[in-house]
Amino acid sequence: MTRTEILNELKKVFAPYTTNKEMLAGISDQTDLIRDLKINSANLVDIIIDAEAKYDIEIDYDSADKIINVGTCIDVIMEKLNQNK
Amino acid sequence: MPHYEELNFGCRLAGMPDFEWEKLKDYISDVTFYGLKGTNIGYGLIAALDAWADSGVEYETDEPRWETGCIFGNSIADTEAMKNVIIRVDNKEAKKLGSRVVEQAMNSGATSYITGRLGLGNKVVTNSAACATGTQAILMGYEYIKHGYAKRMIVGSTEHVDTYVYGAFDSMRVLSRKFNDHPEQASRPMSSTAGGFIPGSGAGAFILEDLDFALERNAKIYAEVLGGSSNSGGQRLGGTMTAANSTGVIRCINEAMTNSNVSASQIDLVSGHLTATNADRQEIENWTMALNRKGKDFPLTNSLKSMIGHCLSAAGSIESVAAVLQIEHQFVHPNINLEDPNPVITDMVSIDSLPVKMIKKEVNIVAKANFGFGDVNSCIILSKYN
Fold it and tell me: Which of A10, B75, B126, B304 is the most buried (most CB within 10 A)?
């Protein structure tokens, strides 16, 4: 799975948690989840839970802490997917 | 409620509001809506936001509204929604619960959602006094404004009687069991055949304002809160966890009149608690003693519960909405299902005081009271604004 594929799928994962739909449509690695997408920091937990279910992975506390923007989110997902192989 | 039969409940009826969950999307953002499961919160939000819209004050604000607070009551979070939490935790899946459970499980859930939607910045309190909750919330908001702490308070209460709460009441044998095949006749306050109450759900809300503040913005004034009282019978002198101490009730009504500068003879209408249990008789006797009025002199008295059931913590706010509407439109609503009034009651007060048909008449002052488990009482005096 490529970074672009994951990025496009993440748009759906983020959708329920952001009212900023325009920003969501144009996200890049640098898009900050809290600052740019205005996602409530408490909802990051929900995004992690949804991503775990979507990719059948487990995101531990240390990995979760690394998720700040779209790029780091993709990093963590790819890392966990590779561990599953 | 067909599935109540499967659950082996004795009573199988409920006064449920016609409520479309999706309609909440018109009131809150999609992000807030997503993950909202607490029915009591949904009811409370819509009641409060409809009241707000009716008040004519703008919805949106960037700054907190420092002059406006909220006192909203409920008795319990939606246990049906919490069931999912229990199952997940028991399955060792607590990690999957997500961020939205705590805010809905906490007692201040409804208050918090209302406050957040409207940006309220004054005192925000969740009150809980069983069936006296709604009336107490109105009184607390009134007192807060009267003492000068706030200019405006959203007050009210919300209740969703889910199957678990319902089952617990059913087990107490205080619910109506003999009219399962005739739902419209099942809630029968003050009647000889009253055999318990019908649980109801919903929410009621008011926007209370300081009079000068309301006049300044040309607000439509439905009615005025003249005063009230909230006390407890202390579970002494005949009062228990579940039964009211009559001395406490009478004292509460008397204090409400004194605090409102209203004499018993001025009361046009009593909006009673009157649930359709054995307590109805004692309640009427308490009113006769508190008002020192009986027989033909007893004021017109009605119970909204005959129409919508007993909404527990929401009863006080919903019934107060009904009381205010009777002031606004100058009528007294009937007690339906009172074709066979309890003779013990009609020995104390004239049958004409318990109308079974709608009466068009001048209604200036209404005494609204509710009494709850824990031996708690609340009474407010509402008046037409002159």
Answer: B304
